[in-house]
Structures are given as structure tokens and as C-alpha cells.
């Protein structure tokens, strides 16, 4: 073995001994604390059980008095009370991307069943409208026990002007 290897081996042995000493010291300290705490139980049981009760009360207080209540409320998309004949814009309630589009379909409820994995479904005429497209609400449809879940809209601008289709009411704002 070379001198460097011997020096590294001695250094490793010294580090292992230091780690063992530290672990032994921690074990001794914990053992001493536990033994003194248990001896308190024998010498003065009132103080022993009082300390346990105090810790339990503090834990219960910490759990029940948690936060300060200054957390901001969770906010989701705001549902407007839409009215027939009024003008609105299309805005995807679930998208943060400004380039996201809003899906329009020919019958209410078809949105729940559509799959646009085919290229023709994604590039079809007037099926995916950009956000901010002005529309007028013509009618409503109920679905899944919710009133006004779908809105029939007429597109008021762009190359699809005058086309009528159904959109989720939450996407009309």
C-alpha cells in the first residue's frame, strides 16, 4: 500500500471512531433523561403525571387553535347569471393559457363525450373558438341535475360570425 492509501485508511478509522463516540454520547444522554424521568415517577408521582398532563394539554391546544384564519379564500371560476339575448365573451374557466380555445358543439351534452384525438376534430370549422370571442346567448339546457349547464350561443365576430353552437355555460362570461 502507498502512503496515501494508508493515510486515507487511518482517516476513515478516525472518522468512524468519532461517529461511534457521538452515537454513544447521544444514547447515554437519552438514557439518562429517561431514567431521571422514570425516577421522578417513583419519587414524586404528582409532578410526573402533572408533566404528562401538561404536555397533553399543550398538544390539544396546538391542534385546536391551528391557523390564524388569515388564509385567502379559495376562488374558482365565477359563474355569471347568464341571460338570453345578452352579449358575452368566451373564456375557458379551466385554462390559464391565453391561447387556449373554447370547445363548441352542435348539441348540448356532446362536450362530455367528445374526443379530439383525430386531427379533423381539432381543426373543424368553428369548433374551437379563441378566448375573447364575442357571443350572444340564445338558449339554455340543463344537464346532470344542474340548471343552465349549457348555453346556446351565436358567434358575433370573426370568420364564424352568425354560427350557432352549444358551449358550457361556465365558459361564457
Write the layout of secondary structure elements.
Layout: H1 3-43, H2 45-64, E1 87-89, E2 101-103, H3 119-123, E3 128-130, E4 134-143, E5 146-155, E6 164-168
Antiparallel strand pairs: 1-4, 2-3, 4-5, 5-6
Helix pairs in contact: 1-2
What does this 3D model show about the protein?
- This protein is of the alpha+beta class and 173 residues long.
- It has two domains: 3-64; 87-171, no CATH class.
- 38% of the residues lie in helices and 20% in strands.
- The strands form two sheets. It has a four-stranded antiparallel beta sheet, with no helix packed on it. It has a two-stranded antiparallel ribbon with strand order 2-3.
- A hairpin with a 2-residue loop joins β4 and β5 (146-155).
- The model has no long low-confidence stretch (mean pLDDT 82).
Order of strands side by side in the largest beta sheet? 1-4-5-6
Determine the mean pLDDT.
82
Low-confidence runs: none
What proportion of the residues form beta strands (DSSP E)?
15-25%
Query: First CA to last CA: what distance?
Result: 79 Å
- Overall spatial form: elongated
Tell me about the biggest sheet?
Answer: 4 strands, antiparallel
Helix content: 25-40%
**SSE run:** HHEEHEEEE
Q: How does the helix and strand content classify structurally?
A: alpha+beta
β-strand number: 6
How many discrete domains? Answer: 2
What is the number of helical segments per DSSP (H or I, 4+ residues)? 3
Radius of gyration: 35 Å
